[in-house]
Amino acid sequence: MKKVILPLAKSRAKFLVFLLIIEIAILSALNPEFAKVNNLIEILQFGATLFLMAVGEALVIMVIPGGIDISIGSIMSLCCVILGLTYQKTGSLLAAILITLAAGALLGAVNGILVGLFNMPSLIATLGTQYVFASLALYVTNGVAISGFPESFKWLSLEMTFGVPNQILFMVIPVLIVVLFLIYKTRFGRNIYLTGDNAEAAKFAAVKTKQTIFFVFVLAGVLTAFSAIINCSWLMTARADAGSGMEMNAITVAMLGGISAVEGGRGHLSGVIVATVLITMLKSGLQMAGINSIWILAITGVILVVSIVVNNVMNQLVEKVNTN
């Protein structure tokens, strides 16, 4: 038993794959249609926006012990609005996308300045910007969805290539490759782990901790902007409430993926990848089984709490084995 438990405790990705297999079996029993390959592929489409936001959230939590960014839902909403308005003004989808990505970086930079440079607690800083960004999105649009995107925009999220959803093949995978390279093959990635593990010690290792935190928030903003682009392509409208509640889903995925809510510099993005699939399939499977959306929301909350407890238990188990 110990030989089975320890590898699962040391690797959150392996543990989540184990849970994913159980989940698919249970949901297939509730609805035989769930396990069909075409259905599983379609379900992955829903996880594209959540995954990109969860990666940004995971990096924030890793670089700041006890850190969190609850503004990403509002950043997504405002980026959707910026995309819609920019397209209306310019008539160029490419220009609108580039400006939206720049806006995401700018909004993330606001958080980065408040937290990284002014040393504000991330919860307080992003709570404030959450209200500001959400208010701006509603003020600019008066709460009315922006439409009029070209039919070609559907290609990004409503079509497939080689049987794979385009948003996965042409946006999520390329962005993921770039992020993984930044985090695990560059000094910037090492600085994230060093800053999160011990910011004071990192300074003695010539790590510019404030700049590292600043650029993590910028990266989180850019990833959220990518999510906004996918969302607008999926709905073919830009809504001022597009990201409402998404921050909690992103936090849930990050925590479930093994990113420590208390200790910085802990966790691996491989766990976040599998956690996104697990949460996305769970929600879709429960909907297919006819479970009320209220209970699905409650189940998501339970998963968030359980994931934090599991993180603590697994970390303690691994530390106990290492000390022995």
User: SS-based structural class?
Assistant: mainly alpha
User: So how many helices?
Assistant: 14
Order of helices and strands: HHHHHHHEEHHHHHHH
Distance between the termini: 18 Å
Q: Averaged pLDDT, please?
A: 87
Strand line-up of the largest beta sheet: 1-2
Measured as a percent range, the helix fraction is over 70%
- Counting DSSP E segments of at least 2 residues, the number of strands comes to 2
Largest beta-sheet details: 2 strands, antiparallel
- Provide the gyration radius in Å: 20 Å
> Roughly what fraction of the amino acids lie in strands?
under 5%
Shape: globular
User: Runs with pLDDT <50, length 5+?
Assistant: none
Please describe what this structure looks like.
- The chain has 324 residues and is mainly α.
- The protein has 14 helices and two strands.
- Strands 1-2 form a two-stranded antiparallel sheet.
- The chain is globular and about 60 Å long.
Characteristics of this structure?
globular, mainly alpha, 324 residues
Which SSEs are present, and which pair or pack?
Blueprint: H1 2-10, H2 12-30, H3 37-63, H4 72-90, H5 93-117, H6 122-141, H7 155-158, E1 160-161, E2 164-165, H8 166-185, H9 187-197, H10 199-204, H11 209-235, H12 246-256, H13 269-288, H14 293-323
Antiparallel strand pairs: 1-2
Helix pairs in contact: 1-2, 2-13, 3-8, 3-9, 3-11, 3-12, 3-13, 4-5, 4-6, 4-11, 5-6, 5-11, 8-9, 9-11, 12-13, 12-14
